[in-house]
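Appendix C: a fully annotated inverse folding record. The material below is reproduced so that readers can follow the format used throughout the book. The structure is listed first as tokens, followed by the designed sequence.
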């Protein structure tokens, strides 16, 4: 193997490399330990004949180079890192480790070299106690787990390419081992240079003169007692109740019986760094206290708000600057992190107005807003600034969206971000180029679309996600909306699919074969690889329309992800989808990976019993629960020879597909569509959105009737569950 060849190549060279002595302190201050005087509280180890200058006999025998290289070579690829890139990392690490080996061994022990010297020792006084505090240093230990080893490649892989200009730099900079303000492959060299360096803890030492041989041990701070709340640094503390004026203090890392480079000497002059507290409350808009809110100040362990909504963070040093972030929970949403500075006083009244839903705020000139309402069909974006849950973006594009929905009193919105300033969604963990905000005006419960997408997620299939939000235009509340993911490249990446395929959105197609690829442009809108012809779609639809009944199962399984198709059909059946024959679905061609086609759902608001009615239109309270299980096939009782979808028809009328579909549908009745569980989910959403719905003056329906609308939705679940059971039993 390549790494083993590397070992044999460097072995003769390594045999002649001499072991360099380790400097005893930063800046050449080489100071050993003396046996303490009898009045000191803690004794130290007696120096032996082979002790180093730090006072403890070292054991730097290390590990054989071949064994280390074998471990590196066989290390599995961590989750989230490209395998090819990780192979490059391992090769670079092997070279760096080999270059540092001595006589064919990789030396272990406490961190050595001035780059590992602790230079920020200080005394903190928080009003209740005094303690020494310093930052953990073990160059190459990027995951801060006490040892430099193979696992430190992971942060490099996760943050590769990060720079101070990026939002993740606070976390990423821990992997910038060479200090060049960019995480790249050169940061692997420090790992190799310090491989197997480990910190079990620090000795705390004192001296009246800071001269060589004068240092005595006061105590130790084990690694297990340190804290790393910020994720990009680790802190140690040591209580020092009675510091002596004029005395010097320092800390020295140790690993087993080996000690590393001593820290810089710090002299206590009678003054200490003052520490203060940050405090505030978490309350809802109606002034109700919210307990158990997790609040994190950068570099500090999280604290929880108390029963009265109050919280306090102690020990914040004078001169501190950082971010106070309330944690998003399932119950409430805290929209804005807050930048804080501490300067000579406590920071109080850091109060958070807590809402149950995230807040999206759009700021647009009245002139441009009037232009949008003057022509709801306008497709041009208008310039606006937005604040999406505390993430501020300037000069984005906004417009109305939808087809029939544009004619309703409450408009749906689309927000389009600049390519260089996309929204870094913290919940969905990728940068979104656009946001769809659906008004759900025709659904008096405002719950159906999110219920639909959540159920699709329960089926473990490729489908967009959704969340409830509060929309403000120029700080005026415009109502509760549903934010639905826009299925584009970032979304495909998030779900682990190759994003270089072609994506088509059905507009009004039943997937009949047409004379030429260009003819499909009138029926289907291409969303990815837009500039390329429709040839792949035309080929697929042509094949679909011409397979014999005997060929359907094998051919469709070869051309399409039929597991995804089955899950989509099951989900549509459970929610009673009857608006998907010629629209409201996507087809994605995974060209470079599987080569197969995938179908996934879209626009599922007219569901859960509330369908379009030929006489009443959109606005009625009729609950329809008996959508046929084979809806979309030409033989379905609700369809005809002229109204159906070729794909659905071929799927439902193939016996083996039908058996697989009905088996999964039956299982879903006892799992994701369990009646008790689904009714509980509706109740959960009702409690979550109630305040926001009642404040929404643009919705369809009266506040006094809202609970009745919820009861109608719940009745669908009971009726639909029974209907499907009955149909499956026949």
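Designed amino acids, in order:
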């Amino acid at each position: 193997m390549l790494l083993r060849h590397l070992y044999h190549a460097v072995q003769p060279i390594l045999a002649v490399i001499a072991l360099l002595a380790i400097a005893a302190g930063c800046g050449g201050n080489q100071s050993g330990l003396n046996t303490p005087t009898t009045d000191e509280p803690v004794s130290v180890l007696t120096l032996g004949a082979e002790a180093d200058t730090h006072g403890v006999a070292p054991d730097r025998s290390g590990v054989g180079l071949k064994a280390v290289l074998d471990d590196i070579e066989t290390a599995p690829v961590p989750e989230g890192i490209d395998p090819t890139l990780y192979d490059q990392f391992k090769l670079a690490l092997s070279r760096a480790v080999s270059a540092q080996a001595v006589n064919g061994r990789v030396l272990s022990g406490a961190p050595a070299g001035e780059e590992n010297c602790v230079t920020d020792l200080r005394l903190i006084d928080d009003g209740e106690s005094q303690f020494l505090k310093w930052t953990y240093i073990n160059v190459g230990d990027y995951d801060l787990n006490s040892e430099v080893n193979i696992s430190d490649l992971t942060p490099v892989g996760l943050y590769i390419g990060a720079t101070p200009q990026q939002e993740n730099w606070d976390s990423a900079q821990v992997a910038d081992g060479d200090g060049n303000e960019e995480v790249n492959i050169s940061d692997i060299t420090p790992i190799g240079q310090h491989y197997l360096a480990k910190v079990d803890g620090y000795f705390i030492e004192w001296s009246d003169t800071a001269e060589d041989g004068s240092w005595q041990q006061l105590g130790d701070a084990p690694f297990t007692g340190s804290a790393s709340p910020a994720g990009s640094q680790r802190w140690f503390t040591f209580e020092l109740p009675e510091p002596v004026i004029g005395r010097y203090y320092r800390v020295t890392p140790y690993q087993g019986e080996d000690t590393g480079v001593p820290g810089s000497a710090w002299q206590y002059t009678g003054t200490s760094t003052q520490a203060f507290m940050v405090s505030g409350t978490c309350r809802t808009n109606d002034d109700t206290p919210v307990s158990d809110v997790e609040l994190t100040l950068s570099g500090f362990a999280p604290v929880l708000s108390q029963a009265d909504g109050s919280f306090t963070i102690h020990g914040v040093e004078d001169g501190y600057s950082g971010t106070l972030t309330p944690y998003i929970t399932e119950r409430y949403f805290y929209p804005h992190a807050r930048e804080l500075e501490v300067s000579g006083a406590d920071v109080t009244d850091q109060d958070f107005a807590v809402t149950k839903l995230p807040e999206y705020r759009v700021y647009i000139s009245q002139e441009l807003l009037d232009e949008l309402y003057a022509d709801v069909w306008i497709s041009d974006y208008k310039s606006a600034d937005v604040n999406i849950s505390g993430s501020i973006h300037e000069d984005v594009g906004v417009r109305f969206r939808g087809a029939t929905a544009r004619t309703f009193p409450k408009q749906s919105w689309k927000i389009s971000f600049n390519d260089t300033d996309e929204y870094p969604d913290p919940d969905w963990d990728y940068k979104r180029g656009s946001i769809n905000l659906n008004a759900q005006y025709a659904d008096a419960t405002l719950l159906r679309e999110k219920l639909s997408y959540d159920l699709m997620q329960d089926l473990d299939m490729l489908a967009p996600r959704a969340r409830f939000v509060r929309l403000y235009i120029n700080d005026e509340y415009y109502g509760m909306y549903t934010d639905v993911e826009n299925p584009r490249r970032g979304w495909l990446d998030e779900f682990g699919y190759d994003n270089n395929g072609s994506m088509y959105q059905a507009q009004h197609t039943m997937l009949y074969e047409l004379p030429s690829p260009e003819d499909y442009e009138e029926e289907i809108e291409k969303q990815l690889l837009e500039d390329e012809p429709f040839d792949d779609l035309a080929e697929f639809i042509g094949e679909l329309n011409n397979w014999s009944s005997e060929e359907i199962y094998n051919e469709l399984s070869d051309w399409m992800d039929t597991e995804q198709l089955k899950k989509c059909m099951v989900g549509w059946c459970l929610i009673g989808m009857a608006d998907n024959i010629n629209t409201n679905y996507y087809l994605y061609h995974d060209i470079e990976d599987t080569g197969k086609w995938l179908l996934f759902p879209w626009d599922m608001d007219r569901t859960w019993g509330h369908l379009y009615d030929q006489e009443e239109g959109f606005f009625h309270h009729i609950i329809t629960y008996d959508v046929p299980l084979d809806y979309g096939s030409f033989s379905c009782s609700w369809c005809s020879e002229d109204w159906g979808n070729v794909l659905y028809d071929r799927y439902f009328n193939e016996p083996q597909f039908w058996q697989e579909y009905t088996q999964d549908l039956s299982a879903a009745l006892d799992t994701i569509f369990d009646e008790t569980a689904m009714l509980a989910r509706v109740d959960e959403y009702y409690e979550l959105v109630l305040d926001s719905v009642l404040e929404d003056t643009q919705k369809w329906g009266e506040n006094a009737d809202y609970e009745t609308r919820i009861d109608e939705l719940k009745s669908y679940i009971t009726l639909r569950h029974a209907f499907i059971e009955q149909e499956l039993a026949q």
